[in-house]
Amino acid sequence: MGGVLQKETVLVTGASGQLGQSLQYVLQQQLAHQKTSVVLDSTPIHEQMATFPAGHDYVFLDRNQLDLSPRESLSQDIDRLIEEHRPKAFIHAAAYTQVDAAELDEQAAFHLNETATDLLAKACAARNILFIYLSTDFVFGGKNIHQKPFLPLDPIAPEGVYARSKAAGEKAVQGAAGPHYIVRTSWVFSPFGHNFVKTMLRLAQERLSLLSEQNQQTSDRNPPTISVVADQFGCPTSALDLARALILLIATKASPYGIHHYSNTGTAHWAQLAGAIFEQRNLPITVKPISTEDFAAPAPRPHFSVLENTLDPKARHWKEALAEALSILKTA
Asked: Which domains does the chain have, with CATH numbers?
């Protein structure tokens, strides 16, 4: 009798982050609805993935399995882990993503986003393992005076520590010279981790609770207001849809190696995204548009960082993706 054919392994860093948790959720959904055949065509990825078979074993690494903090043995620890699992592909989703905090902790941001990325990419390149690095629209800093979506090969202009550290990570992956995808994405939200959608829901609940307390003492029933920046434009992106795109990318390698962009369809500013969140949740919140200068964040933000989606040009609109994320949050 022949032996059981084992699935190839995919390693994923950042197990507890938005993308890591979204990958786990999507894979669990696949197992629950798995079918025996699939037809790859021009339909959007989120529709294809409903029937796409889980062809790999995904191993999710948190800090207990792979601590990427600075130490002399980090390179050896990475080699040991990769030799143990011998993966087909490696998704590096762990990152220093605290944009404002990075301005005060440049060393930590560059260590995780550049140095650790460099060690991982080189270890994978030496073994011909596909390496996938998640990057950001923040590499397109400043003002895009032409207001056209950015293509993967457009010149970058990172501003701020976070953006520069992610750009340095891109360069490290390219320098490792192994098979790789650099996938830039933008304005990521999900039912998991920390993100803008969950922040808006928390603020709304706080304001509505305060209003309820005040209404017990006064007849004033004006809806609460939340101020949100309205002069930064980007593409809100579901981490669930991004996860589906990466799973399909690894399974098919349908796109050439190199830099790609993934985002949901549609452009918005932050105040529009906030308004859609409150509308879909039927929350009586007024959104007050403000400027970037009014918000006065420590780190610079791109004014226009809309990405041209090269992985899935037929990706669904961000409002549809938002509805899925809110539905999962509601039942969680």
From this structure: 8-194+235-266+305-316 (3.40.50.720)
